[in-house]
Amino acid sequence: MKRIIFAVMAVSLLAVNFVNAQEEETKSDDFKRWQVRFRGVGVVPNESATIGVIGGDVSISNALIPELDFTYFFTKNIAAELILGTAKHDVQAIETAAGTVDLGSVWLLPPTLTVQYHFLGHKETTFKPYVGAGVNYTLFYNAKSGIVKDVSYDNALGYAAQLGFDLMLDDKFFINMDVKHIFLSTDVTVDASNLVPDLSIPAEVDINPWLIGIGFGMKF
């Protein structure tokens, strides 16, 4: 009888220890996998161009835009981020045979997906730095042609590099600072037939913008 009682007690003790171990493991994997950020972003093109017929270079204006992004954590250190925002830029051809040519403006919609490594994601720290890299696909829309008849931009695939940090205010809310460099080029065709009959000017334009942002975020 005593042996049976001791056996039951031993099994019960092992069961309790197993349950406690499982609960601890579950708690260690129980973390907020989603976060959302709202940032103000300065878009600073690092532009250059090869322009046919009239030669010269390109000048693209800076922009200040709102940006929304969503991040999903596969683990406490590895995450994927989708960045959404749109910007309007004024464009000029400069130092050409015709001088400075106003090419109007164009809107860019550049959704960007990056994979990130969060260095201290597994630790309860205030400062959480990360790096990332990914792809970008930029859509050009609502182009205004300036003094020429028309300007068309080809949508383009680019690549992104990212560096930033989250500064935790508590376990849910945080401040974020983030810098991205987008490696982006597009083919542009300028229809200047309103100035010179049948004049079409091709150009290869490297935009390569820096995106410098600061904002607030929430984990959930």
TrEMBL record:
Domain of life: Bacteria
Gene3D superfamilies to which the protein is assigned, alphabetical: 2.40.160.20
A Pfam match: OmpW
Keywords: Signal
Entry's Gene Ontology cellular component terms: outer membrane
Record GO biological process: transmembrane transport
Protein name, as recorded: OmpW family protein
PANTHER family reported for this sequence: OUTER MEMBRANE PROTEIN W, PTHR36920
Protein source organism: Flavobacterium tibetense
Signal peptide: 1-21
InterPro entries per the UniProt record, alphabetical: OMP/PagP_B-barrel, OMPW
